[in-house]
Target: Asp23/Gls24 family envelope stress response protein
Amino acid sequence: MPSSPTTPRAFSSADPVDRAVADRLSAGIRALPGVAGLHAGRYGDIALLYPRHRVNGLRRTPSALEVHLVVDLDHPRPLAEIAAMVRGVVKHSLDVPVDVHFDEATGGPS
Model:
């Protein structure tokens, strides 16, 4: 049964994330206040990979979906609040635990 944006799909450890869902999650997370972007890791290894396409900053593990963030210090928010908002975005599309990682920060006082 296909999932819809309003009905979270149950996740098993072997399930990949559909490309359209990954793109939707990426866009929704990047639009959150306090988020400057998604972080692909030092060597670009944090990404969901698809044929001729990648979604940086998201990684599927057997137990969770990892979300790696760049925090926007020009629009500061408590990290716990940002993590809760990220989990809310994911919850609309997937029924999976979410591990939020704050990998980098940008902006702030000069």
Notes: DSSP finds two helices and eight strands in the chain. The helical segments are 19-30, 79-91. The CA atoms of residues 47 and 56 lie 4 Å apart. The first strand starts at residue 9 and ends at 10.
